[in-house]
Write the structure tokens for this entry.
Amino acid sequence: MADLKNVGGSDSGAISAGKFLENFTHYPWLHLDIAATAFLHTKENYRGKGGTGVGVRLLYEFIKNWK
């Protein structure tokens, strides 16, 4: 029997996942919930079929320019 279970419905999945992960860290952390936009079944604009890497470029630029 688990002491902790990652359960969240469609209305609370991101926050449930974040609170679940919080139990395994002892330092500041960030949970990026990109599951809903992370995969395409067909090509869309400049993004090809499959994993999209959504948000990766934005996160990279943010960290690169953080002062």
